[in-house]
Amino acid sequence: MPKNSYHAYQEFSGFVRLFHWMRAFAIFFLVGSGFYIAYPFLQPSSSVYSGMYFLQAYIRSAHIMLGFILIAVSLFRCYLFFFDRKSHAERSSARNVWDLDAWIKQLKVYFWISKAHGGAGAYNPLQFIAYLSLCILLVLISLSGVVLYYNVYHNGLGAFLAPLFKWFEVLCGGLSNVRYIHHLSTWGIILFVPVHVYMVVFHSIRFPDGGTDSMISGMRYVKD
């Protein structure tokens, strides 16, 4: 065998990769539309087109639809994490969180002291904690989003969801706090995204194992 040769194996299934990019695009557009809903800086009277008078309604509708898509994709992604056979490498990464040696090895990697990865599986302990934090933020933003939805749309789906999620509104202490949690969760996700992109690029540059493109091709390369 040639020195430093690698063999490929599938780390992420097709569904995992699809849902990753669906969530990424949904989050991107939800953040943009959410900021516009909070501060509608485009004035309808500034346009000669009558459609501009419904701009806020169009953006709100798109925001709501993308929000429910994000909830559905996140629920299915959670199902895959726990029950998909191809997600075994992700589940096994949870053990790294309790492994002190894995933390030390990974910190050495990030401080350019060593090249030994911390722990086995798809994620090192820092990655697992970061993705777990993102999941918590998505749960908070989804719950608060549903509460804000049924407090505006009282019929149809809103009437169905209200008794199911009223507990979260009560737990938060009222609708104003729900809106505040929705905004804080948004900022948490905004802070996560650039750090996530930077660390993925860092890993891809430092290690020739397909770090970035594994979420496109699904393949990871391991040295023989």
TrEMBL record:
One annotated GO molecular function: iron ion binding
Record-linked PANTHER family: NI/FE-HYDROGENASE 1 B-TYPE CYTOCHROME SUBUNIT, NI_FE-HYDROGENASE 1 B-TYPE CYTOCHROME SUBUNIT-RELATED
Designated name of the protein: Ni/Fe-hydrogenase, b-type cytochrome subunit
Keywords for the protein's UniProt record, in alphabetical order: Cell membrane, Electron transport, Heme, Iron, Membrane, Metal-binding, Transmembrane, Transmembrane helix, Transport
Localization, UniProt: Cell membrane
Membrane topology: Multi-pass membrane protein
GO biological process: respiratory electron transport chain
One GO term describing the cellular component: plasma membrane
Domain Cytochrome b561 bacterial/Ni-hydrogenase: 12-218
Family assignment from sequence similarity: Belongs to the HupC/HyaC/HydC family.
Family annotation (InterPro entries): Cyt_b561_bac/Ni-Hgenase, Di-haem_cyt_TM, Hydrogenase_cytochrome, Ni-dep_Hydgase_cyt-B
Source organism of this protein record: Helicobacter mehlei
Keyword Secreted tagged: no
Organism superkingdom: Bacteria
Membrane-spanning ranges: 21-42, 62-83, 128-150, 187-205
Designated gene of the protein: cybH
Chief place where the protein resides: membrane
